[in-house]
Amino acid sequence: MSGWISLHRKIQNHWIWQEKPFDKRSAWFDLILLANYKDNKFLLGNELIEVKRGSLIISELKLMERWGWSKTKVRNFLKLLEEDNMIIKKSDTKKTTLTIVNYSDYQDVETAKRPQEDHEKTTKEPPKDQKKTTKKPVEDHKKTAKELRKDTTNKDNKDNKENNIIMTPQEVEYISVLEKITNYPLDRKKDLDYMKELEKRYPKLDLVEAITKFSDWILDNPFKQNANHRSQINTSFSKYLEWGQCLKKEKKSKRPPLKMVINENYLRE
Q1: Of 1, 30, 147, 210, which has the fewest Cβ atoms less than 10 A away?
Q2: What angle is formed at CA 186 by the lines to CA 184 and CA 192, rounded to 5 degrees?
Q3: pLDDT (tens digit, 9 = 90+) per residue, 184-205?
Q4: Residue 77 contacts residue 89 (beta carbons within 8 Å)
Q5: Beta-carbon contacts of residue 8 (< 8 Å; ≥ 6 apart)
Q6: What is the CATH architecture of 9-104?
Q7: Distance CA 68, CA 18 (A)
Q8: Is 224 or 29 the better-scoring residue by pLDDT?
């Protein structure tokens, strides 16, 4: 069986994608879905990081949580993908970058296939028609690329200036979730400003966890016509705080081991 299917990223918010632990097939698909579909930049500490199309920056801890795996299983799986030339893994003290090998094969199959088929067709025609026919693959290629961009890019996010917005890792995750919400009017600058406002209103909330929970809820409760989308997010965040959900996890301070002193009559710590 040949050919390919189009799989929307919003499937990650569906209940069928939440079952854990993942098998190897699901984990591989998850990496493809997590990879950037276009070049992007974000700020990591004081360093501006550029993430190329088909790549993602993610920690082993995050993959453990997403897939329900142990650290050893995650490392062995990534090593297996490297050995089979499916990914390229680069790690340093700050981050781990995974690059999907031949990422375009999973996204632009028709783009690469149509010009090739047309080329094979036109090379069989008489030389006098060569100039005329060789233009067709180029035109088909441009048309297909345009269609793909239309499918994968939100209408409110086509301005090239937005590609230069510098984002923190948390902001990248937050915007990534918004991109997957059906009928959400994404505006990176506006949503990043609103995210900062939400941070001030709800300092105890983990905003990435909260927006992910909201995106799951909105699947079963789609936006109504003329809805105030950002206002609905604010209302949901207010409820999460009231219910004690999506709260930031407190960092546990390391304590020295306790010494127990045994006495004949009592135990003293």
Answers
A1: 1
A2: 125
A3: 888 888 999 999 999 999 999 9
A4: no
A5: 180
A6: Orthogonal Bundle (1.10)
A7: 10
A8: 29
